[in-house]
Write a structure and sequence with these properties.
Layout: H1 17-26, H2 29-56, E1 58-62, E2 67-73, H3 88-97, E3 102-104, E4 110-112, E5 115-121, E6 126-131, H4 145-156, E7 171-177, E8 180-185, H5 192-198, H6 204-207, H7 219-224, E9 232-239, E10 245-252, E11 265-271, H8 274-282, E12 288-291, E13 304-309, E14 313-319, H9 329-337, H10 341-348, E15 353-355, H11 362-365, H12 378-387, E16 391-393, E17 396-401, H13 420-429, H14 447-459, H15 461-464, H16 479-488, E18 495-498, E19 500-506, H17 509-524, E20 528-534, H18 536-545, E21 550-556, H19 564-567, H20 585-595, H21 603-619, E22 622-628, E23 630-635, E24 663-667
Parallel strand pairs: 2-11, 2-12, 19-20, 19-21
Antiparallel strand pairs: 1-24, 3-4, 5-6, 6-8, 7-8, 9-10, 10-11, 12-23, 13-23, 14-21, 14-22, 15-22, 16-17, 17-18
Length: 668
């Protein structure tokens, strides 16, 4: 019998809420616990199955979200491809705002940027190429080959004084269509692809009516609101009351032809003092910024990741090859042997760099290691100094150079003699008033001269009279008297040449610490060093005039090793960068040969550079010390920074499109 009680279950009807409550009331405690466990397992399984399904069918990807606050030292002046290479800050901003035909990837390889495809012919003398047809300027105007030609024309025009001009001489560009053109080179050049990286394209429609006189003074276009075609555009520039720039807000370019960045904004903050920049990083007021190895301490930057990026920047001791003793190859080698580079680097770089023996940095450019590096060796160094006559005297290495007088007595002279040698005798005797009071120079040997000779002989009786068993002077100039006259008359003292130098450098923290360590190492070997710190303007003048014996300085190589600007004899005069005034016809020949390979990875080119670096190391025009990594601090929540190699600081942004802060899941 089926109950008809309203609280009882009925056949064919779904239980009401009250009936369900009655169900739980009739269950015993153990049954309720069992049911609860089963229900929990059911819900957990359901959540697991749904989650598994979601995870299997979605991917985690960076979210288009957020901003970073970047701290930099200095002020922007020319966010303009023509002049940006002159300033680190300008290069940073130009890298984000403008585009180039080619670019670097995170491993330092050259890859297309605006170029969509290209073909190299005639061994590198002809390159026909196309650019992407979806590229636009930040104001919406299409970017075409006319913009490329316009930019190259300005760079090549001497009137515009662009620092890029040297690398574009002898290059012609011929338009084929709005998106195609041909480069024609007078001579194959291995560094041409890098020239395509370094050249950022200007918008013709913006700059075509700006004359050469006002192009550098146009603050609106150069600083406040430059227009490019890069992944970011200038949203807002904030100036202080003195018209200097406090900050610049860059927002993502939604019309960008390439992969759009995930970060929606990059805000640049400009500081005048390194101390202010560091303090803001430590306090967390900035999300990213550069530090020197000497500034970095893990405890001070707990909120940050340290991105240590390899660069071809290196520091070296440049020896002036035109001055003694550095005109002597052996002496240059000795100074190299007496620097413990490993000790210097360990104390200065905090492990953020690499000791080098070659200025061509083989580890960065894929060259072979040097055959005979001049590694630290006190014994070899001091042996060379000894061999060249520089011996320790009172703790200072000094070379004694004997000087001979311009005159020596050779004739026997006595009363009645006359002539030039008698005159010289009288000049010598006259140097001592007690011996020859009158000091008469007549050229005739008379009684007055004889009396003076007697007094001379008796003054030096131990050398003249005693050895000849004489007790009084004879007044005759011969034998022992001639010998003594030659010892005391017309004698030019020996020249003492100490190894004592002024080492000139700048106030850069790494250079200051390095200079002090080199001074200590060399002074232990008897080489005296005085450190002279130069201001930026003083350093430029010293380098321009090559006014130094020893210069501790840095040089910045490019992405493709081209030693000509740094070591070719034609570059010994400013603006050439051959700071040591190195002059080797064999080295010149090797450099010129290496430049003629269009493919910079050609094995024959690598072999040529290997030969060159071995020659430079042997000649030792300078002492390469170490490379320095670029130390870039970023907040730990900033992901996707995987750059391994850069050619200059601005290239830290080459993969900025991969940077992100948040993640999201999307369906496959």
């Amino acid at each position: 019998m089926i109950s008809k009680n309203k609280n009882s279950l009925s056949v064919g009807r779904w239980p009401t809420k009250k009936q369900w409550l009655q169900f739980f009331k009739v269950l015993k405690r153990k049954e309720k616990i069992a049911l609860g466990i089963l229900f929990t397992l059911f819900i957990s399984s359901l959540i697991f199955l749904v989650s598994s399904f979601y995870i299997r069918n979605t991917n985690v990807v960076p979210a288009d979200y957020g901003r970073i606050r970047e701290g930099v030292l200095g002020q922007p002046q020319f966010i303009n491809p023509l002049y940006a290479p002159l300033s680190d800050i300008d290069r940073d901003l130009t890298e984000l705002i403008f585009s180039s035909l080619m670019t670097y990837d995170g491993n330092g390889n050259i890859v297309p940027d605006l170029i969509s495809e290209y073909n190299v012919e005639e061994g590198g003398k002809t390159i026909d190429f196309s650019i992407k047809e979806n590229a636009k300027w930040h104001d919406g105007v299409n970017l075409t080959i006319d913009d490329v030609i316009f930019t190259i024309d300005l760079v090549q025009d001497a009137e515009y004084l662009s620092p890029l001009r040297t690398n574009w001489q002898g290059v012609e560009i011929e338009k084929v269509s709005d998106y195609k053109a041909i480069f024609k080179l007078k001579q194959t050049y291995s560094g041409f692809e890098e020239s395509l990286v370094n050249l950022k394209i200007l918008p013709q429609h913006i700059w075509k009516d700006v004359n050469v006189q006002s192009i550098t003074s146009n603050t609106q276009l150069n600083v406040l609101s430059p227009i490019g075609s890069g992944p970011y555009l200038v949203k807002k520039t904030i100036q202080k009351s003195d018209k200097t720039v406090k900050s610049m807000i860059l927002s993502v370019n939604n019309d960008y032809y390439g992969q759009k960045p995930h970060l929606q904004r990059i805000d640049f903050y400009f500081f005048n003092k390194q101390e202010d920049l560091l303090n803001n990083l430590k306090k967390g007021n900035l999300d990213s910024g550069n530090v020197e190895a000497t500034d970095y301490n893990d405890k001070n930057f707990k909120k940050y990741n340290l991105n240590s990026i390899e660069t071809p920047d290196y520091f070296a001791v440049f020896l002036n090859n035109l001055e003694k003793p550095f005109d002597n190859k052996e002496m240059r080698q000795a100074f190299s042997y007496l620097i413990n580079k490993q000790e210097v680097a360990s104390n200065v770089l905090n492990g953020k760099g690499e000791v080098i023996d070659s200025p061509l940095i083989p580890s960065f450019y894929g060259l072979n290691n040097p055959e005979a590096p001049l590694s630290y060796d006190e014994t070899k160094g001091t042996q060379i100094l000894d061999k060249n006559g520089y011996v320790l005297k009172d703790g200072l290495r000094t070379k004694t150079v004997e000087k001979s007088s311009g005159f020596k007595f050779t004739q026997t002279l006595q009363s009645g003699s006359s002539g030039a040698e008698v005159k010289k005798l009288q000049e010598c005797l006259a140097q001592d008033e007690a011996i020859y009071p009158s000091g008469t120079i007549s050229g005739t040997f008379g009684q007055e001269t004889k009396a003076a000779v007697i007094k001379f002989q008796e003054k030096y009786k131990d050398d003249i009279l005693t050895p000849n068993n004489l007790t009084a002077g004879t007044g005759k100039v011969a034998g022992a008297t001639i010998k003594k006259l030659n010892e005391v008359c017309f004698v030019v003292p020996d020249e003492e040449i100490p190894l004592s130098f002024v080492l000139k450098t700048t106030s850069h923290p790494i250079l200051q610490k390095t200079a002090q360590m080199i001074k200590e190492q060399w002074e232990k070997q008897g080489i005296k060093i005085e450190i002279q710190t130069l201001t930026e303007s003083e350093a430029k003048k010293v380098i321009r005039e090559r006014n130094f014996s020893i210069l501790l300085f840095g040089e910045q190589m490019g992405g493709i090793p081209d030693p000509i600007p740094f070591w070719h004899s034609s570059q010994r005069i400013d603006p050439g960068l051959n700071l040591s005034s190195y002059n080797s016809s064999k080295a010149d020949e090797l450099m010129e040969k290496a430049r003629k390979y269009y493919d910079y990875t050609n094995p024959d080119r690598i072999k040529t550079l290997d030969d060159l670096q071995n020659l430079i190391i042997s000649d030792s025009p300078a002492i390469p010390l170490f490379t320095t990594d670029y130390l870039y601090l970023t907040k730990k929540n900033i992901k996707g920074i995987d750059t391994q190699k850069i050619t200059d600081a601005s290239k830290r942004f080459v993969n900025v499109e991969n940077w992100y802060i948040k993640e999201q899941r999307v369906w496959k």
